[in-house]
Amino acid sequence: MNPTFEIFSQGEEIVTGQVVDTNAAWLSEQAVAMGFNVTRHTAVGDKLEDLIQVLLDISNRADCCICTGGLGPTSDDLTAEAVAKAFDLPLVFDGIAFAQIQQFFNSRNRPMPECNRKQAMLPQSSIRLANHIGTAPGFALQNGRCWFAFIPGVPSEMRHLFLEHIQPMWVDRFVLRPSKLITIKTVGIGESDLQERINTIEIPPQVQIGFRAELGEVQTKLLFPGDYPQSQLENLTYSIAATIGDTVFAIEGLGHHSGDLVSVVDQLMTAGGHTLAVVEIVSQGLLAAKLIGVSWLLSAVYEQSVERLTQRLAINNLDDLITTSKAIAKAVQKNTGADMVLIQLTSRDYYINPNNDKAVTVTSTLLVNSECNQTVRTIAGDIKRKQHQAALLSLDLLRRCLQGKEIV
Amino acid sequence: MNPTFEIFSQGEEIVTGQVVDTNAAWLSEQAVAMGFNVTRHTAVGDKLEDLIQVLLDISNRADCCICTGGLGPTSDDLTAEAVAKAFDLPLVFDGIAFAQIQQFFNSRNRPMPECNRKQAMLPQSSIRLANHIGTAPGFALQNGRCWFAFIPGVPSEMRHLFLEHIQPMWVDRFVLRPSKLITIKTVGIGESDLQERINTIEIPPQVQIGFRAELGEVQTKLLFPGDYPQSQLENLTYSIAATIGDTVFAIEGLGHHSGDLVSVVDQLMTAGGHTLAVVEIVSQGLLAAKLIGVSWLLSAVYEQSVERLTQRLAINNLDDLITTSKAIAKAVQKNTGADMVLIQLTSRDYYINPNNDKAVTVTSTLLVNSECNQTVRTIAGDIKRKQHQAALLSLDLLRRCLQGKEIV
Q1: DSSP code of B130?
Q2: Which residues on A lie below 8 Å from B38 (Cβ)?
Q3: What number of CA atoms fall less than 13 Å from residue A193's CA on the CB side?
Q4: Cα(A248)–Cα(A220) distance, rounded to whole angstroms?
Q5: Which of B38, B108, B286 sits opposite A285 (nearest CB)?
Q6: Which single residue of A183, A272, A402, B98 could bond A252 by disulfide (Cβ 3.0 to 4.6 Å)?
Q7: A211 touches chain B (CB under 8 A)
Q8: How far are the Cα atoms of A195, A396, B334 from residue A189, in angstroms, in the given order?
Q9: How far apart are CA A310 and CA A324, in angstroms?
Q10: What percent helix, strand, coil does chain B show, rounded to 5?
Q11: Across-strand partners of A6?
Q12: Distance from C-alpha of A375 to C-alpha of A389, rounded to nearest angstrom
């Protein structure tokens, strides 16, 4: 079992929501990568009794803990005092810490305010963690079975002290076996469908499985113990991916096919030497925006009125979306010289009142040289969700076509 | 003393740092504004015994608690089961919740997977919180002195359920003295510049001031006690806004000018009866994408090659960006009939190698009827940041022009 790791963030600005606690996420990622089992985040404000209680609880529960914040010079910075009370360790003046704080002000040609002297008072027998980019030194100590490190909440100082002092110290102190994380990425399938398909496969109990839906993709995460045999890990991963099917667009953690849907499409387009022009009526710029930085997108157009678009391209036929799309695609191909052209159209109702939440039908057409692939799909939700879904549908149509998958 | 409020976030993705817990900050802000005293945030992963222990601890400590996450259909979604075990409340099939889940799938023409049935199992005698934008219903219940509400972790669903159900319910159940929150929103100025300007004003000690940078805007937050006189509140707010200057685009909390930069521009464009066409070379679709749902955007174009664009528009002059932009704007105005045309151009180097992190100069041109406003600004950072900054520059140029502010 990997040692357990908790994160304790202190500060009124965090519990009142004025600041988002990005430190906790950053520290957690570092700890997981090192092989710790991160079990809990806690945040409280500047109240001494809360700080003391949380410190005591964590010392009874975790193998190690990083505490951020509350090390400043002002009266609401209470961490050292709380440690002293919780663990019965008097605060002791640390001459080296004090010299470093003075040096910080000297090097900036500023007088040291008297209140900064407080930052040199450290709990007895704690290990000082020198801070080269701010005034607050950190400190580390053991209480019961738990190792604590206390560092400032300013993100740059927090990272500096973690990487400089805590990471090397704890790599030495703990026996860590980093786990292996595999992420299977899918588009166009929901979490519950994924779960149903994966239920047909037997997953060994030591493999943790989790799902994560992000805008644009659903990830199936497999966390293997560090000593899990690589061949078995690969077999299980590939058999899960095969069971999920064509909606899998990437597998991360096996050294290939990584990245999000855009980067997978980018690799395929670049490898094939293709160029693309798009007309995106439903996603309204979002598809082009997602493709920022690729070399193969020649042009992207949004038009509020399909009539104006067809007029400009000198196309007459407006009988149905399927034939209109084809005609637009061919005209755009001629104008731009792109070998691939992607057209998104939808019914006229959509433009007249786009802000209602009714489902709409999107006709997507992908012209590759002279061959047309078309799909018709219904998308629902508010207008932003429809916009996003339409961009995804287009990207996935590209991906399926480039990978030779079935167009659905 | 205001009632105490805790936030409990559940999910491996949070404790392992794959996701930053922005929900906790958003909910805290709402709770503080309602008049609660937010005392603690806790996050744990998908482990049943941890969930049960945290629920029991909170029920002994707080007056109310919002729990996010763990309500999905898959096997790692354990919240309802943890509630059942912690508070000894059997899970009961809720026919109305089930019908709502079925309706969600029906409206999307998709069959409901069997595992979604689990989401209709709610703790006995809990209050169902209908979710109109996702499958997971929330629920609320009292245990000991503590009122709990359980809602999904997907931010849009979380906000919807909080605003729709929990906020009105708890305003009724608790005696609250809400503070008053004023948010001054700016674009194009950094936090430290804001702080320096505001330092010149005397802020009474009972007014809390905070800053928050979000993509696209920096917010200055003023939290006033509930009994702070309204006229003094307004005077202080307006004097701070005046000190900050023209970068202020909205003040929220005084009953007017609310929303983000897009909605402020939308109000101004709609009120003026304007229409817009854009050519966005640097933001590459992002400006159009941000304007989803507005009625006045007639067309948006991205072209990789400015040469091809000028050829298509039959413009010869390519000597400098200023005159080229004007010529493009006039041609686009003629083609689209829009009374306002916005053109973003940049130097040719950018298109040749857009993925380096060098600063680029963006020439923005806004043609209003026959009058041209132009700005030239340098933007830096990676390509996504430049894309975003270019879209913001364009929006802010529109905003300044519509509000009659100086064009900088």
Answers
A1: -
A2: 15-17, 45
A3: 17
A4: 10
A5: B286
A6: A183
A7: yes
A8: 10, 12, 44
A9: 8
A10: 40, 25, 35
A11: A40, A65
A12: 14
Q: Say which of B76, B293, B298 has its CB closest to residue A354.
A: B293
* CATH number, domain A180-258: 3.30.70.2860
Q: Is B310 on the interface with A (CB under 8 A)?
A: no
Contact flag B284-A287 (C-beta cutoff 8 Å): no
* CB spacing of B284 vs A291 below 8 angstroms: yes
Q: What's the CA gap between A139 and B161, in Å, rounded?
A: 42
Write down the ipTM of this complex: 0.76
Q: What value, to the nearest 5°, has the Cα angle with vertex B12 and ends B9 and B13?
A: 85
Residue labelled with tokens 């992000």: A214
Walk along chain B (408 residues) and give the pLDDT tens digit of each residue.
789 999 999 998 899 988 889 999 999 999 998 999 999 999 999 999 999 999 999 999 999 999 999 999 888 899 999 999 999 999 999 999 999 999 988 888 888 998 899 999 999 999 999 998 888 899 999 999 999 999 999 998 999 999 999 999 999 999 998 888 899 999 988 777 788 888 889 999 889 887 776 667 888 888 898 889 999 999 999 999 999 999 999 998 887 656 889 999 999 999 999 999 999 999 999 999 999 999 999 999 999 988 889 988 888 766 788 889 999 999 999 999 999 999 999 876 666 666 677 888 899 999 998 899 999 998 877 888 899 999 999 999 999 999 988 877
Which residue in chain B is spatially nearest to A282 when comparing CA positions? B292
DSSP track, A120-171? GEEETTPEEE--SSSS--EEEEEETTEEEEEE-SSHHHHHHHIIIIIHHHHH
- A73 near B CB under 8 A: no
Local structure of residue B335 (DSSP, 8 states): H
Q: Which CATH number fits domain B4-173: 3.40.630.10, 3.40.190.10, 3.40.980.10, 3.90.79.10?
A: 3.40.980.10
- Looking at domain B262-402, what is its CATH homologous superfamily? CinA-like (3.90.950.20)
Residues 6+ apart with CB under 8 A from B372: B326, B329, B365, B366
d(CA B395, CA A216): 26
Question: According to DSSP H, which parts of B249-356 are helical?
Answer: 261-272, 286-290, 306-312, 321-336, 348-352
Q: CB distance B300–A308 less than 8 Å? A: no
Domains in chain A: boundaries: 4-173, 180-258, 262-403
Please state, in angstroms and rounded to a whole number, the distance separating the CA atoms of residues A329 and A338: 10
* Residue at A395: amino acid letter: L
Kindly give the residue spans of alpha helices, DSSP state H, lying in B88-131: 95-107
* Torsion angle of the four alpha carbons B316, B322, B327, B328, in this order, in degrees rounded to the nearest 10: 100
Q: How far apart are CA B173 and CA B154, in angstroms?
A: 26
- Phi, psi angles (nearest 5°) of residue A73: -85, -5
- Contact criterion met (CB below 8 Å) for A239 and A222: no
Phi-psi region of A255 (alpha: psi -120 to 50; beta: other; left: phi over 0): left
* DSSP element (H, E) containing B297: strand B297-303
Q: How far is B352 from chain A (nearest CA, A)?
A: 9
The CATH number for B180-257, chosen from 3.90.180.10, 2.170.8.10, 3.30.565.10, 3.30.70.2860, is 3.30.70.2860
CB contact under 8 A, B13 and A291: no
Q: Which helix (H) or strand (E) holds A394?
A: helix A383-403
Rounded CA separation B377/B394 (Å): 11
For A173, residues 6+ apart whose C-beta sits below 8 A from its C-beta are: A147
